[in-house]
Amino acid sequence: MNSEKSRSGTLLLWVFVLSGFSGLIYQSIWTQYLGLFLGHSSYAQSLVLLLFMGGMAAGAWLVSRRSVNLKRPLLAYAVIELVIGLLGLAFDPLFQGVTQWAYTSAFPAMGGNGVNWVRWGMATLLVLPQCVLLGATFPLMSAGFMRLQPHVEGRVLAGLYFSNSIGAAAGALASTYLLLPWVGLPGTILSAGLLNILIAIAVYPLSKVERESSIVEQPASVDDGRGALFILVVAGLTGASSFVYEITWVRMLSLALGTTIHAFELMLASFIAGIAFGGLWLRSRADRLASPLATAGWVQIWMGLAALASMFVYANSFEWVGWLMRVIMRTAEGYSLYNVASGVISLLVMFPAAFFAGMTLPLLTLALLRQGQGERAIGQVYAFNTLGAIVGVLLAVHVLLPLLGLKLALATAAAVDLLLGVALLRRYAPVGQRGVPGFAKAAGLSVAGLACAMLFVHFDPMMLTSSVYRHGRVTLEQSAEMLYLNDGKTATVAVYQTPNKGGAPGATRSIATNGKVDAGMASGIEQAPTTDESTMVMLAALPMAMKNDYSRVGVIGFGSGLTTHTLLGSPRVGRVDTVEIEPAMVNGARHFGARVQRAFDDERSHIVIDDAKSYFSASPAKYDLIVSEPSNPWMGGTASLFSQEFYEFVPGQLNQDGIFVQWLQLYEIDPVLVSSVLKGMLANFSDVHAYLANHSDLVLVAAPHGKLPELSGSVFNDPLLKSDLARIGVNDVRDMQDSFVMDRAALEAYVAHYPSRANSDFFPILQLKAPEARFRSVSVADFNAFATAPWPVSRLLGGFPRRDFEEGDRRGLPLQVVNKLKAARQLRAELLGLNAGPSTTTQAGERMNAEVLRGRGMACTLDKEPDGSAAMIVSLAMETVPYLSAETQDELWANPSWIACAPDSPLVRDVLALVGAASQDDHAAVLEAGSRILEGPDAGTVLGDRMVSYYLVGAMQYAALASRQPEVAKQIHLRYDARLEPNLRGNSPLRMLDYLSTRQ
Predict the structure, then answer these.
(1) Which residues pair with 84 in a beta bridge?
(2) pLDDT tens-place string over residues 844-873
(3) CATH number of the domain at 851-998, out of 1.10.3470, 3.30.750, 1.25.40, 3.90.105?
(4) How many angstroms separate the most distant Cα atoms in the chain?
(5) What is the Cα–Cα distance from 674 to 857, expressed in whole angstroms?
């Protein structure tokens, strides 16, 4: 019989592991779902914690009222698990149906009145029923287990607490690292539902052998029945402090480890693992304790001291992360290692205090059981503890962090635990014969711990905002000046200023979220603009060059405020609604002063603190223009602004001729992820164009209906806007055209070039994969490469004809194509023997090639080294032909004046003929000359030269495609591609030509 009970107990422990596993899957995935509805993962995390704890408190309290009257608590537990499972199966379709109805019907009908209350109310109703049921599981399982194994209440409680918590820690990791990438949000929550149903099936047979409760509801001795209410208050307060710890630690570690879904789940798992092992340590000791409450007192003391000690550990975590970023290889395998190391750092910070937190609930419950409170004590302690957790979440998010900051918020929670410990020891510690009383020792330790933490721990703002998880630098440079630092409700926002590098005058002022710089601007208007400035100005200017009037404009994300400021530089713009979810971001942006003044002072500017999707859906009027400028996709809460569902939503908020503009960062992301964004956008907009604001920022302009208007010069009729554009080197519409890289057809080709599933809210490719891309420091060079290819590929992709760069000092956009154009003019002058001027953009090697080639041409020695001459001709052609007009290239290549006598070498003659034909867009002549070279006696030599072969094959493919002979281009690809070096075949422009050649 005893062996049967033992087997039943073991099975129940394993069942409760699975129950905790599924429970944390719900918490993690509900956070993802509600983040889509509430607009930011931090808000969703807070609400899910509140509902999770509140629901569990309600469920536990309800059980505490009826537990003794239940004849078969395990049967009740099985039924509840079954209902939880069924609700889990129904959650995804219910969520999608409710939220779709909210966006399309409820919110528009409300016209903005009370939308937030309704939104939060809907979110509550979606998850609260399951939370209440989840809260009932622990007291029911505990009651049923204790009936199967009576008289070992402490062992049962601690064992169940351990098994449930360790399952929860595993569930947090499994949901993010295994299930979510595999089956997405719908499949993950479906898996949790199926698991609950299996749990119910497993428990049902055990419920048949339950018996009546053996716990007597009478005061029974050790603690004399004193202070049941006091014990419950302690349970509530320690629950509050524990969740202040959790939220503060997560915010702290986000600054060191990064604001990613992986980092958050590692932190959550570390916290829960600490709780689990605290229960495990207590399991074999609980029933031997003379006074559980005295032990709880010391546990509270050690928990508070461990929380204070976590500050010392955290202060060193930036050094550890910096070291990791320097020594770990930036590969996919390296990212896995980085995650493991991040988990270790999270454990070092969280585990000690969480370990002691894992003992409090079993100890307090055991004390009440010994006082004769009966099985209802289990639900009462659980309810008060979770109610306290709710208070802790609210205090942390809305009071402690915004008002006190990270350090003082953590210290306040620690002080609560220390006071609780002293109070428990004062009341329940055994009275000794000699020596200092236990509570006095505890009080002394508490004061010493608080004093040490306050005096010796310093959270350096330069360290907190260093973004060490990106580049490994532990602190900002010593010359940096911190202008603003605020721990907001969703993120830590900083504004700081750093002197320009290389001794250049002036400084750059940056605004950062959790260490990640979202915008940087020159501190003075007299300084050269930053690349971020060009992006923010172009986000506003490109649509302004397409239409005459925008009566209503929406901007998603405030950032520095420069985009809004630029838009308001035109009298053709009416109301501008800038929607930002973090108030601290708006307050921080004020430090950019006059550079963004119109965003704050212009009466047309309306700054809204809300979720953009909810705000726009409730707006009574539609928009003529919506500009979305979120942070990088790997940042928490931003990936949903690059999703297929978001792009389905936006057209409904635009007028018939409305325009949508999207900023997509090309750094810390890879081509497949960019393709996942483009695929979602192309599916929902009839026309999309891509522009480069600089080498690493893509601006996508889209129209939901019809074609995008052409760029016009009307934008330069607005004096303020004209001045903003001139600052970034855009002086006329042709300058704007230089930033164009792809039309819709080309973007479709790019997506086919890098096949990917569309990024979706429910299959969040970006959220899961972008953090790894960030770690690997990869970037997408394709768009820049297309614009600067050795053949004018951009014209095949919808670009504009070549033009000559005008004389004079014109900065131009910070684009490589503009620098290439300048360099082409200098190389032309060098080869023709003209005054090339100072070398500002050309490479020394190219200028030397031009000098040597001119010397050979004038001395009639091109034939002496035909291979070398051909290579130099190709090298210079790659740097000039795509950028200069046909007229400018006449005496350069078509009728080269720098050659005194015609060369005899067939190779040199044919290479010159091909380059000359390419300079004049004589595609037939290019194909003819290329065939002579690649099929002639020098073919082996040519194909053996990586640069020459690369250029010739690409030039022929381009000529065939430009002359609308895709079959010829395909044959060139099939015949010569395999003979090129592998790394050349992987070159982006050549791969695009290959794709365009073979897709027919």
Answers:
(1) none
(2) 788 888 889 999 989 999 888 889 999 999
(3) 1.25.40
(4) 116
(5) 46
Protein fold of 531-780: Rossmann fold (3.40.50)
Can you name the residues that pair with 497 across neighbouring β-strands? 481, 509
Torsion of CA 35, 36, 39, 43, to 10 degrees: -10
| Residue 478 exposed, middle or buried by CB count within 10 Å (0-12, 13-18, 19+) | exposed
Task: For 127-182, write each residue's pLDDT tens digit.
Answer: 889 988 988 888 888 777 777 777 677 787 778 888 888 998 999 899 989 999 99
Per-residue pLDDT reduced to its tens digit, 215-266:
444 444 444 445 788 999 999 999 999 989 999 999 999 999 988 888 888 9
Print burial letters for 874-889: b (CB count within 10 Å at least 16), e (below 16): bbbbbbbbbbbeeebb
User: What's the fold here for domain 220-470?
Assistant: Growth Hormone; Chain: A; (1.20.1250)
pLDDT at residue 2, as a whole number: 53
CA distances from 790 to 151, 824, 883 (A): 83, 12, 9
Residues recorded for the chain: 1000
Q: What is the dihedral of CA 200, 203, 204, 209, to 10 degrees?
A: -160
User: What span, in angstroms and rounded, lies between the C-alpha atoms of 43 and 48?
Assistant: 9
Contact indicator for 775, 632 with CB cutoff of 8 Å? no
- At 224 the pLDDT is 45
Residue ranges covered by each domain of the chain: 1-214, 220-470, 531-780, 851-998
Query: For residues 683 and 395, what is the distance between their CA atoms, to the nearest angstrom?
Result: 44
This prediction has a pTM of 0.88
Asked if residues 273 and 351 have their Cβ atoms less than 8 Å apart, the reply is yes
Domains 1-214 and 220-470 share a fold: yes
Cβ atoms of 744 and 688 closer than 8 Å: yes
CA nearest 56: which of 395, 398, 381?
A: 381
Q: Edge-to-edge strand order for the sheet containing 492-499?
A: 481-487, 492-499, 507-513, 516-522
Q: Which residue has the tokens 């250029």?
A: 951
What residue has token string 């919110």?
107
Measured in Å, how far apart are the chain's first and last C-alpha atoms?
A: 76
Residue 113 has what pLDDT?
66
Beta-carbon count within 10 A of 348 CB: 16
**Residues 430, 933: Cα–Cα separation, whole Å:** 99
Task: Write down the residue that tokens 């079959």 correspond to.
Answer: 967
CATH superfamily for 1-214 is MFS general substrate transporter like domains (1.20.1250.20)
Torsion angle defined by CA atoms of residues 803, 809, 810 and 815, in that order, rounded to the nearest 10 degrees: 80
Query: Residue 457: how many CB atoms within 10 A of its CB?
Result: 18
Burial class (CB in 10 A: 0-12, 13-18, 19+), 22: buried
701 three-class SS = strand
Instruction: Tell me if 34 sits within 8 A of 123, measured CB to CB.
Output: yes
**Residue 742, strand partner residues:** 690
**Residue 462 backbone class (left: φ over 0; alpha: ψ -120 to 50; beta: rest):** alpha
What pLDDT was estimated at residue 390?
Answer: 86
Beta bridge pairs of residue 573: 550
Structure tokens at 461: 């703002």
Between 961 and 44, residue with greater pLDDT? 961
442 compared with 375, residue with greater pLDDT: 442
The residues, any chain, with a CB within 8 Å of residue 438's CB and separated by 6 or more, are: 294, 297, 298, 425, 429, 430, 432
| Nearest Cα to Cα of residue 227 among 310, 287, 297, 279 | 297
The pLDDT tens digits for 591-622 are 999 999 999 999 999 999 888 887 887 777 89
pLDDT, tens digit (0-9, with 9 covering 90-100), for 711-729: 998 899 999 999 999 998 8
Kind and range of the H or E element at 850? helix 844-858
- Quote the DSSP letter at residue 927: H
